[in-house]
Amino acid sequence: MARITPTLDLTGFGRADFVMEAVVEDLDVKRRVFGEIEVRVRPDAVLATNTSSLSVDALAGGLVRPERLCGFHFFNPVHRMPLVEVVRGARTSDRTLVTAVALARRLGKTPVVVRDAPGFVVNRILMPYLREAMYLLEEGYALRDIDGAMRDFGMPMGPFEVVDEVGIDVAHKVAGILAQAFPDRMEPSPALEKLLAAGRLGRKSGAGFYRHRGGKRQPEPELRALLDLSRQRRGQPLDPIEERLVLAMINEASRCLEDRVAADAGAIDIAMVFGAGFPPFRGGPLRHADTDRPGGDRDAAHRAARRARRSLRAVQAAQRSRAARGVLHRDRRWYGCRLTWAQELNKNVVRSLRGVTARGPVGLGRLARSGGLGPSAAIGP
Fold it and tell me: Is 302 marked active-site?
């Protein structure tokens, strides 16, 4: 805290080496901010934007030195998600890129360099996944079954829980931008528009797809009426839920690889594991596509998933026991214990999965042996 200097004006920027904006997701607002900052910083200072969907090249268009601008995209919740997407624009210099990657590492994050493209990597892959979840809801599947299916798959949260955490307004904004870029497969969801019109913004407003009271998520009994959804499936198998949602991510991840948004399949898998919570023991969407095929490692991967869940439950049970004995401080909940989900899996689960999920030089086998990702994880286009 001693390093934080509050200010009511723009004085002090002349001493900064790295300036990052995190204002509202509006192109004109961000351009005005950069216009005011650029004239006050040193010529060698790096400028960065935390945008989740806007084009870095479009933001750089009004700068005198566009080569010193890059994207620096964190993921919510920032203190738990290890990923930073470092976005390289068409005019971003090597010096700017290296500085941003080095800073991300100093912050304890895992940088993955991506090309300036709509949605970058993680949001572009997540949007078809979230839209497919909306289709399932419209077809009559229950909200709890959709979210539950993906938690059983290994995701830390279901798709609707993710939208509530991020914010309905933010999800709607990103969905609109991606719908313009990919109109053939990313049409906006009417459900988001209706929730937004009703003032339900997710956890931050106390209501979204769920009700949020006292930090707890509760079902919303009037949700289907609010969204004008009448169809309800009863007694239908739930297997198609996981398959449809996972395939939506795999398909878009393949398109990202084809478009060279990231350097290789490994970089895309790392981004999805550390930025979206894709189950680490499955190796990422593209690795999962390699194993989940006839004649592949599907049975081994499923056995690994069961071992991972048992191991994580054992860790949580031990933490509950310690909390009951007063070992943990009261301000630390047993299920968190100041460890992110990725750290828990890294320390207690991944070690048993080396033979199943190892993927070349940046596979999870290496992750387990080294305790973290090596420098090759940050290599990008």
Answer: no
